[in-house]
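Ticket #4471: structure export looks truncated?
Reporter: QA, pipeline team
Priority: medium

Steps to reproduce: submit the single chain below to the structure queue and open the exported record.
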Amino acid sequence: MINSIDKSKKVVTFGEIMLRLSTPGFTRFVQSQSFDVTFGGGEANVAVSLANYGLESYYVTKLPKHEIGQAAVNHLRRFGVKDDFIVRGGDRIGIYFLETGASQRPSKVIYDRANSAVALMKKGEVDWNKVFENAIWFHWTGITPALGKNAQEILSEACQIAKIKNVTVSCDLNFRAKMWTTEEAQAVMKPLMKFVDVCIANEEDAEKSLGIKAEATDIESGKLSEEGYFNVAKKLKEIYGFKAVAITLRESYSASRNGWSAILLDDKDCKTPYRSRKYDIEIVDRVGAGDSFASGLIYGLLTKDNTKDALEFAVAASCLKHSIPGDFNLVSIDEVEKLIKSGGSGRVER
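Actual output as written to the record:
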């Protein structure tokens, strides 16, 4: 395993939490007369799950001092996330609008996050030496450096200090085409990989963020080549020396129904790529599913007897997330373990 668990030690994430405004049910932007309001964002979603699993979970970001910024802080507190290192200041919180798709109509996201507090945050506003005192894990995603030069400088500093302090670093590549181009992403992401111990990706992240493409795969058709992604995992590990590589595999039959599984390659238990059980999912809300996988994998690598069990925990946890509205994965360890054992009949528990 990556580390032996000590729940008194910190797990840390850094990124942007946003105000999420989603159309009720499956209504479209052009027909909705109201929005459902919550908060979410890649690393915040991971922080919530890790707190929910009983770890000392700390989230680092910057939020305005006004009431909407405070509402975001309160939302994190509600789920047990520690806010000791959240910087206050700036004028606005990022916003994203979500229209949930169904059947053959895909979901849509519109961002309104330019000049948010965290995007304008300066290097030196966070004391990373203090943040990483007694820490065992640091997680970030490719969304954070996509915020701009300031975020890239802060993230680089955080990664360097994390490595000095022997903190395990994980990165979910999380390419976002609406935030930057593949050329911009690769120019920034490739140098950051030298700090990463555990790399997490989905079907296209490795290609968009690091230039490594899976062969014989068409993500639009929902047909994925297992061998193609095994080779991607092997290449990632060879090129960047990651301790572990995990790739989620989403077979998209429609916006409402997906196949969901993952593969893992590491130094110990999975010297050849291992593919998890596959779940056939009817989707309620897929936003945050990748983050729920990342948090499940982190928890699994810190607590399970072997990395195969860690992967199965991550896939099961993220499978359940698809059934929960909102960004956060509000499931218990027991619920995840039950799904792993039963395969998920969905029967009422009385």
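Status: closed, not a bug. The export was complete when the record was re-opened. Leaving a note from the reviewer for reference: The first strand starts at residue 10 and ends at 14.
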